[in-house]
Design brief:
The chain is mostly helical. The protein has a domain of 85 residues: Serine Threonine Protein Phosphatase 5, Tetratricopeptide repeat, CATH 1.25.40. The protein has ten helices and no strands.
Length: 171
């Protein structure tokens, strides 16, 4: 996400959007450096300054790193309420539900992510759906999901490995 994306979101003062974007960038950097408490504070400050679906989603992602999956899901639900067209929070909820072993519930969220109008990584929900079907022993559905992920992103190494592993296992 870049500054232009932040500036185009919703109503608000441009100064607040710019400040929120800078806070979001600092939060992401802290998160990637493993400074999760600092990342949470900065994402929360970004949201207070100018709330975006991205900030809620990434705050949820940080919570998931901390093992706080229910809080992560709540942040993603806030992201969806703010921007129902943004695909990431749907996929993330599904991923968190996999971790909570709520596989059937996860499927619905991945399907919603696939239908999202704004999603930079549309292969992710297909890959995750494949993971669900594989865990459920539904090999052919998993295979189709992995194929879709690879078709959408031929460079998606994890999806290619999963597809190859499953093809090898089925033969």
């Amino acid at each position: 996400m870049d500054l232009q994306d932040f500036l185009q979101q919703g109503e608000g003062r441009e100064e607040d959007k710019i400040e929120a974007w800078h806070l979001f960038q600092r939060a992401y950097e802290a998160q990637m450096n493993g400074q999760l408490d600092e990342a949470v504070k900065l994402y929360q400050e970004s949201i207070r300054t100018f709330p975006t679906a991205e900030a809620h989603t990434f705050l949820g992602w940080t919570y998931s790193f901390m093992g706080q999956l229910h809080e992560a899901i709540e942040e993603c639900q806030l992201a969806i309420a703010r921007d129902p067209d943004f695909g990431n929070p749907y996929n993330d909820i599904g991923a968190y539900l996999i971790e909570l072993n709520q596989l059937d519930e996860a499927i619905t969220w991945f399907e919603k992510a696939m239908q999202a109008k704004r999603y930079e990584c549309p292969a992710f929900p297909h890959m995750n759906l494949g993971r669900v079907y594989e865990r459920k022993g539904e090999w052919h559905k998993a295979l189709e999901a992995y194929k879709c992920a690879v078709t959408l992103n031929p460079d998606y190494t994890a999806a290619k490995r999963a597809l190859l592993r499953l093809l090898t296992m089925m033969n």
